[in-house]
Design goal:
alpha+beta, 18 strands, 23% strand
């Protein structure tokens, strides 16, 4: 079975856009959270060094990290998916070698879903995570810190399978009814990694961190609207039966993680600057640890109880975490090196 599938887009519902609360005032939900990431499979975040095998990225204190940029990218993509945001990262022209590919992907993305074009009219994801274009810039309302590894378990060096670029020229995968098929997500491999015992120009020789490794990170947020806060929370914790995928070599089965919020403090920033007592106890409220799970569940219930959404149901299907799942995931070229050339019209659901 192919290692990825596409979460569809509700094309008939344009992204909801409106002006964002600016940073010169305090309105909405602000605060701070900490969370723990647990690796359910080996995970690898690559560096730009020339080590052989390639090693996991570290910070200046020589600790393994998942960079804040990786976390932000993960959560932003999820908010764009579940809150019907714009496509902030979109390669319009696919190039194969030095030539244009068989399709111009821009033709498959309706105008309404392209990157927001006015700083005063932003979709949910651009209001939360920020927006940058020549017409202006908006800083965004959430800031993540690097996730520091607090329990590193090194895995032995491995050769990944051949990792090659996307093939959007295979329109049977990437297009549906003249529109792009959706947003790409990779399945989990609870049955174990798919590896290669040979070295090739497309495979990578790496030392991942093994399952059981744990990371801790924090995030600050300011001026979130209620719907933005709920979408952000859902993107961070998902549902009990689901797991995130992050990092490198997802087609080999790496990168399945579970994220749990361990501490959440809400702050009334307006009161902070108007209360003469100026003591944190007057404007901060830490959610009681015994109440934290119930609070989060109540905030994200609009997503978790929605069983009619094709978007959410598709995401649940792809990111379902079932330790007993024995499905074998692999690219079609693992069965036939010329599969894409010989099967131009075969959809992703019919891959060998």
């Amino acid at each position: 079975m192919n290692p990825y599938d596409f979460v569809p887009v509700s094309w008939d519902i344009s992204p909801e856009r409106h002006p964002s609360t600016m940073h010169d005032k305090f309105e909405g939900i602000s605060g701070h959270l900490t969370a723990v990431i647990s690796a359910e499979t080996p995970v690898f975040i690559k560096t730009n060094n020339n080590h052989t095998p390639k090693t996991f990225i570290k910070n200046k204190d020589n600790k393994y990290i998942i960079p804040a940029t990786s976390l932000k990218g993960l959560f932003r993509n999820l908010v764009e998916t579940v809150a019907n945001g714009c496509f902030s990262k979109f390669d319009e022209i696919y190039r194969k070698g030095n030539q244009k590919g068989k399709i111009n992907l821009k033709d498959g993305l309706p105008e309404a879903f392209r990157l927001c074009f006015k700083p005063e009219n932003l979709c949910t994801s651009c209001r939360i995570f920020g927006w940058l274009k020549k017409e202006g810039v908006f800083e965004g309302k959430v800031c993540f810190q690097d996730a520091i590894c607090i329990n590193p378990i090194e895995h032995e060096p491995i050769h990944t399978i051949d990792l090659m670029g996307p093939k959007p020229h295979h329109t049977a995968f990437y297009m549906k009814e003249d529109k792009i098929a959706g947003r790409k997500y990779y399945f989990h491999f609870p049955q174990g990694l798919t590896l290669d015992n040979r070295d090739s120009k497309f495979s990578q020789y790496i030392i991942p961190l093994d399952k059981g490794s744990k990371f801790s990170f924090s995030a600050h947020f300011t001026n979130l609207e209620e719907s933005e806060w709920q979408a952000l929370l859902y993107a961070i914790v998902l549902e009990e039966s689901m797991r995130h995928k992050i990092g490198y070599a997802k087609p080999s089965g790496l990168g399945s993680i579970k994220i749990e919020i361990t501490n959440l403090t809400l702050r009334n920033m307006k009161k902070r600057y108007t209360d003469f007592a100026n003591s944190e106890i007057h404007y901060s409220k830490e959610i009681n640890p015994q109440d934290l799970n119930n609070y989060i569940a109540s905030q994200i219930s609009g997503f978790t109880t929605n069983t009619n959404s094709p978007v959410l149901n598709s995401l649940r299907y792809i990111w379902n975490w079932d330790p007993n799942n024995t499905t074998s995931y692999h690219y079609p070229i693992a069965v036939d090196r010329n599969w894409f050339e010989n099967n131009h019209d075969v959809p992703i659901k019919n891959t060998p």
